[in-house]
Amino acid sequence: MKLGIVGMGAVGAAIAMAASQRGSAREMVLVNRHPERSKAVALDMHYGAPLSKLAAIRAGDYDDLAGAGVVVITAGINEKAGGATDRSDPQGRLRLFDKNVEVFQDVVPRVKRAAPGAVIVIATDPPDPLAEIARAIAGHERVISTGTYLDTLRFRVHLAERFGISPATVDANVVGEHGTSSVFLWSSASIGGMPLPEAVVKRGWDFADFRQKIEKEVREANIAIIEGIGASQYGIGILSARIAETILRDEREVVPIGSHNPRYGTTISLPSVVGKEGILDVMLPDMSPEELRALEESAERLRGIVRGAMPKLG
User: Fold this and answer.
1) Beta partners for residue 190, in sequence order
2) Looking at 34, 46, 140, 178, which residue is catalytic?
3) pLDDT tens across 96-133, in order?
């Protein structure tokens, strides 16, 4: 089981560390445009190998990705460097799109040549439209984005904190874009089988106020992290490692993740079955009319930004 990671910035290094600790792959190849950085990350991790899961970790070039089952791409400009940290900016991560399309025009063909059978996972922001670009460049359907998986985990964590329970016991999803148009599925969320709105009212809380506060916390979590440490890296690192191992082990877990959806005409996140070929099936959960409209709007937003970039791909 071989995992490739392209881009050894904060996110790439966090994915490598998480994958090492989790035992996500037996072999990892770290690729970076500045080879000295990937060599340093691999060397540093090498010294912790006796205390980690068994894995061969090495720096390499694109050719060394040959035989990888999964390649995670994190290369590109991040939110802080790209000026996408204004909490009131409706564009959010989408401000990074044009610059990172240029990066992908160089990176994705190299990944495809070296590892033509790999599932490509896009973790670079904004992941959903960049996955659509990568799909067009790669010419196959084994391209997915980390999508709203992180938003969903944050949603569950913040809900669990309010109720004083484990996040693992919260069933709640965020769908659509990993960005400012993400859609929180309050209508189908539950705790212990009890619909979440009922659980909120049972505690004597005002549901509208509760909902507004939770969504604000989740939507602004990324910026709060960036303001503190410069990059959001550990959460995305852990979930990207989890995605990789789900693919490499053909676990067929259902998680909210991004893939090209013919119904919506773009890459968008919905609960999906993940296995060795990437996305094996996509679920459309029960949604209120309000949530369905919001999902359509999120899809249109993503279609619009991708539409403008396609002619530039040649």
Assistant:
1) 171, 195
2) 178
3) 899 999 999 999 999 999 999 999 999 999 999 999 99
In degrees, rounded to 5, the angle at the alpha carbon of residue 132 between the alpha carbons of residues 61 and 75 is: 30
- Residue 170 near residue 191, CB atoms below 8 Å: yes
Q: Which pLDDT score is estimated for 74?
A: 97
Task: Answer yes or no: are the C-beta atoms of 182 and 94 closer than 8 Å.
Answer: no
For residue 86, the model assigns a pLDDT of 67
Predicted confidence at residue 314, as pLDDT, reads: 59
Sign of the CA dihedral 115, 118, 124, 130?
positive
Distances (CA, A) of 200 to 62, 133, 170, 218: 51, 41, 13, 18
Separation between Cα atoms, residue 287 and residue 191, nearest integer Å: 17
Per-residue model confidence (pLDDT) at position 80: 73
Position 85 scores a pLDDT of: 67
**What region, left, alpha or beta, does residue 49 occupy, with left being phi > 0 and alpha being psi -120 to 50 degrees?**
alpha
At 62 the three-state DSSP class reads helix
Residue 34 to residues 29, 72, 104, 110, 111: CA-CA distances in angstroms? 14, 17, 16, 15, 16
Q: Does residue 261 sit in helix, strand or coil?
A: strand
| Measured distance CA(237)–CA(153) in Å, rounded | 13
10 Å Cβ neighbour count for 217?
Answer: 16
- Residue 178 known to be catalytic: yes
Please give the single-letter amino acid code of residue 127: P
- End-to-end Cα distance, the chain: 34
CA dist 200 and 195 (Å) reads 9
Which ranges of the chain does DSSP label H, i.e. alpha helix?
10-22, 35-46, 79-82, 97-114, 127-138, 149-163, 196-202, 207-229, 234-248, 289-309
How large is the angle between the packed helices 149-163 and 234-248, nearest 10 degrees?
A: 120
Which tokens sit at 38? 């990937």
Q: Classify residue 195 as left (phi > 0), alpha (psi -120 to 50) or beta.
A: beta
Please list the ranges in the chain whose pLDDT falls under 70: 82, 84-86, 314
